[in-house]
Amino acid sequence: MLSVRRARRPGAVALLAAAVLLAGCTSTVEGTASPAATSGSPTSSSPSTTTGSAPPAGQVTPAPEVGPGTGAEARRIAGVTSLPVTVTPDRTDSCFPSGPFGTASGIDGIYFGDGRAGQELDRWGFVAGWGNCSQDAANNATLVLLTEMSDPASAASAADALNEISLDFGGGDYEPVDLPALGVSGALSTGGSDSAGAPSDTIQAWVASDRMLAYTYLDAPTGSAPDLAVAQLQDQIALLAGFLPTPQDQVADLPTDPLGLAGFALTTPGEQTRFTGSYDLEGYLRLAIDPTVERQLLSANGFSGAYYRTSYDESASLDYAVSLYTFPTSAQTNAVYTGFAQLEATAFGGAPFVLPAIPEAPCFAFPSGSDSYYQRCYVGYGSYLASIDVLGLTAADDYGQMNALLPQQRDLIDG
């Protein structure tokens, strides 16, 4: 069964990924590990999948050079990547891997590991992608990976090749399983068990929809995996209705900070990671611990956009994240400020603490391992709300980093 990492809140998901595998990467995206899980919005009708033969040699549109535009396209893809919790409501714990990808080799390293999947994605013109992962209390996980390919025929050819390759993963204990509702054959492994000892199966499948190529890897109680995989991928394809991938020759020109928020998000110590960048509402929700509740809170208060900055300071072995949100009015900012503070203390289980530098700031500490903690504090002013996370502390009451950073963030947004 898939091994995944639990996270208790939005910043921690990204930070764990960055700390374990991505220190020193830029926002142009990279990665490395093995399959995981996610969900999306339900649909009542079976999606139609793209079919097509391999294009003649030389007709795959070359992928653009990896750069800031690649990261922007990956964050566009985030907004239409299926959230596992929508299909399987009890899979509420975030897990790893997740986030943006700008190279096929990064995906291969983090999901598959032997190079074949990355080579196949590159062969068919991989541009960018996003992964979501969620699991239940027994560690039954769902991973959804959505990637952008050269053209519809290339995406379909990649799906065929990758479904065949999937049969060899996991020591060759996968058998083909027909998924007629999707028009593909997936790979099913039976005879496993979850962390509670209940019997479970694992399935993985790839399916194409126009230029987009979707993959799911999930655990499910014995006998139910094929139906759950179909539901997950149908949800994914339904979310793609109306989504237009950026033409390859326009990716480099995509705006990376359309709302001009980067200058108001504190630059934290260390090297920025692949998660850094601008997010719309749907993209941000792919980082959220509770997308349903946070969607309601942000939508009700006119959420305009977010800028998310993450970094890893190798010398201190600490991860940092800054989430900057913008709203039309200060009243709406205040409402979300209060709402997030309530969520941290109740739904997310944070332990409140008083920060000496800004005693009135809502601050919370969380365990992130047997001997590790992370802290989150909020400040708001006018149309801006910001939170700062520090992860990797050896004591929950070690306020040194937060004492220095939160006043700097406050000064940036109060003008």
From TrEMBL:
Domain of life of the native organism: Bacteria
Membrane-spanning ranges: none
Region named Disordered: 30-71
Residue ranges of every copy of the DUF7373 domain listed in the record: 67-255
Name of the molecule in the record: DUF7373 domain-containing protein
Stretch forming the signal peptide: 1-23
Biased composition (Low complexity): 31-58
Alphabetical UniProt keywords: Signal
One of the Pfam families matching this protein, by short name: DUF7373
Organism: Klenkia soli
